[in-house]
Each structure stands twice: as C-alpha cells, then as structure tokens.
Design brief:
71% of the residues lie in helices and 0% in strands. The chain is mostly helical and 165 residues long. The radius of gyration is 18 Å and the shape is elongated. It comes from Cercospora berteroae.
C-alpha cells in the first residue's frame, strides 16, 4: 500500500501544515508589530511580511486542497495539475520565506523575545517547507504515475482527505 493511499495520514499532514502556518503567522505578526512600533511606524521588514503572506496563502491553499477532493471530486476544479500547482507554489513560498528571514537574521545583533520569535518563525517555516515538499512529491508521483491515461482531468481519489459525507 502506497503512502498516498492512506487518507488519515494525508489529513494528519494537512493538519500539521495548518498548525505550522498558524504558529508562523502568530510569530511573524508579533515581529512585524514590534518592528513597526520600535521604528516609529516605518514598517516591518519585507522578509517578515512575506512569511505573513505565506501563512495566509497556506490557509487558502489548504481550503482548496481539502475541500475540492472532498466535495468537488467530479468537477473541473479537481484536476491533478491544479493540485500539483497549488502544492508546488506553496512549497516554493515556504522555501523562499524561511530562507529570506534566515538571511535577514544572520549576523544581526539581536536579543530579546522579538529575535527569539523571528528565529522560531524561521524554524517552523523550515518544518512547514519540509511538509509541503513531501506533499508536493506525492502529488508529483501521482501526476507521473497517471500520465497518458484517459483520466487526465481527474484527481486521485486515493489522496482525498475525507471518506465522504
């Protein structure tokens, strides 16, 4: 039995992705607020803002990746290339976000809770990227396994996260 056929495992990974996105959102929102207040309203670093965007994007992507296979499995929305695209874009966002914030924090004399929060956001961003890399690899294996078949417009029912209603 392949790992992508285990719907409970896929749902668990999706929950972990949502949890990590929520943690990163909270940490980066704190860093952005602190930075804006410390520098008298000059704004927060773009690296922090990008991770905030990535966290929000992740929630939108998870809504699509969970809801479409579950409720719209027979519609045009449930296309294997659309699922692969959402997975890949989200993975790239997480990679770019945690690397950018890590580079921003490197060599910066920093202490206190705000720096600890920024470093924690980098760490959770890296773990989130690993989860998204894993699910992107699973989606890629599905696309490659089903290339040239007549069902090119259908997503794999084995990677649905719900048993149905």
């Amino acid at each position: 039995m392949a790992i992508y056929e285990n719907r409970t495992l896929i749902l668990g990974v999706r929950i972990a992705q949502a949890l990590f996105a929520l943690i990163v959102l909270g940490l980066t929102a704190y860093v952005a607020d602190w930075w804006r207040n410390w520098w008298n309203g000059y704004g927060s670093p773009s690296e922090v803002n990008f991770l905030i965007f990535t966290s929000v994007w992740t929630f939108l992507a998870l809504i699509y990746l969970i809801l479409v296979p579950w409720r719209f499995a027979n519609s045009i929305l449930h296309h294997k290339f659309a699922i692969l695209g959402v997975e890949a874009v989200t993975m790239i966002f997480w990679f770019a976000g945690f690397i950018a914030l890590s580079v921003f924090m490197t060599g910066r004399p920093c202490g206190g809770t705000v720096c600890g929060s920024a470093r924690a956001a980098c760490t959770f961003g890296a773990f989130s990227w690993l989860l998204w890399a894993a699910t992107t690899a699973l989606a890629t294996m599905h696309v490659l396994r089903n290339r040239g078949t007549a069902s090119t417009s259908k997503g794999d029912p084995n990677i649905q996260v719900s048993e149905g209603v």
